[in-house]
Amino acid sequence: MSKILVTGGTGYIGSHTAVELINEGFEVVIVDNLSNSKLDSLDGIEKITGIRPVFEQIDLCDKNSTETLLKKNVDIEAVIHFAAFKAVGESVAYPLKYYHNNLMSLINLLELMQQYSIPSMVFSSSCTVYGQPEKLPVTEHAPVQSATSPYGNTKQISEEIIRDTIAASNKIKSIALRYFNPIGAHPSALIGELPVGVPNNLVPFVTQTAIGIRGQLSVFGNDYNTLDGSCIRDYIHVVDLAKAHVVAVQRLLENKNRANFEMFNLGTGQGVSVLELVKTFEKVTGVKLNYKIVDRRPGDVEQVWADTACANSELGWKAKSTLEETLKSAWDWEKKLRYEQK
Description:
- Helices cover 42% and strands 17% of the residues.
- By secondary structure, the protein is of the alpha/beta class.
- It folds into 2 domains: 3-183 and 237-266, Rossmann fold (3-Layer(aba) Sandwich); 202-233 and 269-336, UDP-galactose 4-epimerase, domain 1 (Alpha-Beta Complex).
- The strands form 4 sheets. The protein has a 7-stranded parallel sheet with strand order 3-2-1-4-5-6-11, sandwiched between helices. Strands 7-10 form a two-stranded parallel sheet.
- The relative contact order is 0.15.
């Protein structure tokens, strides 16, 4: 049983990945500073899998605390690194906050991985590294464009840091998973997206509006060069995404990687506009959404969706859930949350 360190593991994608790792027989150690997540997710992980992972509340920007964790877990074989701030709009408003947190935590981890002989990292990257692609769907060979937000730039810089670290040393190998827009929740409705405060992502704002927590949903722009004028994204079920992380870490542990640094797009390969998603949610749930069109949001890309052929063939992975199934899971999670609070 390999022991995997999951940073940011009480967060949205991290908690779902912890479930899939445990289900595949891995031992999971979670580290999180709980800045944008809650310990409740550990209860959900335990209810789904029957196992409560080891948890340490640590800020990875604190190198001494991170080193103490690794000293206690000398048998860690790989790291899946999710821990990062991730809101595009917030990163535009507070760029230094994003550069400090997202880059310092990665640098500390890479230094300590070399020191403690942990050879493998799966890195949580993003389609934001492509900026606004010149050609769609975007492949892994597309040129990295100038980032449209500090958040996106931290992902670009992080990939460069990992690549340069690997080039300078043969101690580490890594897979960067460039994923598109994760949405939905575990089918058990025991874990899901639980933003602290006002959601920055579309779907939790949709579900919170539908259930009455938010008065109105803002759609940022209807004057883009798309069929209905709203932004287009590639929305992928979070469970499909989590399963890809398990496949990627297995690839590294079994030395099946073709290079010491690889990157893969994770998406459905289908572009869906914001207004299409709103209409699909209304159809699936029977709930009419109160929304209005507002000005464009700084940092947003007009349209992007994935060419997933490389991940499909190399990893043997493919997104399976439909948009309808994914939105239903998000709604089931939202209803469960509010039912428990009554």
